[in-house]
Amino acid sequence: MEILNILFSIVLACITGMLIRYNFQLRNAINLSQEALYPSNEDYHAIRFLPEMKIEKPLKKDSRGYRLVQWTTVLTICLFVGFVIVTFTTNWFHSSYFTLSVLFYLFTTSIKLQESFFIVKEGMVMNGKFHHYSAIDSFNIEEIKKWHKFYGLHEDVNQGYHLEIS
């Protein structure tokens, strides 16, 4: 039974580590977006995300999604420490309760953050994650003209550009 406790502790520690990493990635993206080369404050209305046609909004630390990620990470760390202490010092919990941490991970990663796109000096911030220029293999820019697949979806898209990054 001791081996099972250790195994579940390792799983919970990995999930907690992934949540902490996700929190730091999001915080880094928010900090980098403040120094964005593009879009500037007046250019936010020009960026649309397909297919919903949502207008981009700046990333902020006071946004609902960021706060949910931040507090869920703190709660998961507290539960991790509490479960480890109680499981190894008493027989109150069975080690399988550690799998509840998967629910916190799923909840945190399913939080719909606002879509974002920023060009910064070191790379790009896309959907809350920073991507260094060395991680980008290729990109393609197409003008949206009359026979383009996105032409006619929305009047703001017509005569615009479609950026594809891989």
By secondary-structure content and strand pairing, the structural class works out as alpha+beta
Return the domain count: 2
Query: How is the main sheet built?
Result: 3 strands, antiparallel
Low-pLDDT residue spans: none
The succession of helices and strands, N to C, reads HEEHHEEEEE
Global outline: elongated
Radius of gyration: 21 Å
In helices, the fraction of residues equals 40-55%
The beta-strand count equals: 7
Keywords: Membrane, Transmembrane, Transmembrane helix
Transmembrane segments: 6-24, 68-86, 92-111
How does this structure look, described?
With 166 residues, the protein is of the alpha+beta class. The protein folds into two domains: 2-130, no CATH class; 136-166, no CATH class. The protein is 40% helix and 15% strand. It has helices at residues 2-33, 64-89, 101-109; strands at residues 48-49, 54-55, 117-119, 123-126, 129-132, 139-143, 161-165. The strands form three sheets. It has a three-stranded antiparallel β-sheet, with helices on one face. A hairpin with a 3-residue loop joins strand 3 (117-119) and strand 4 (123-126). Helix 2 packs antiparallel against helix 3. The longest helix is centred in the first third of the chain and has 32 residues, at 2-33. The protein is elongated, with a radius of gyration of 21 Å. The model has no long low-confidence stretch (mean pLDDT 74).
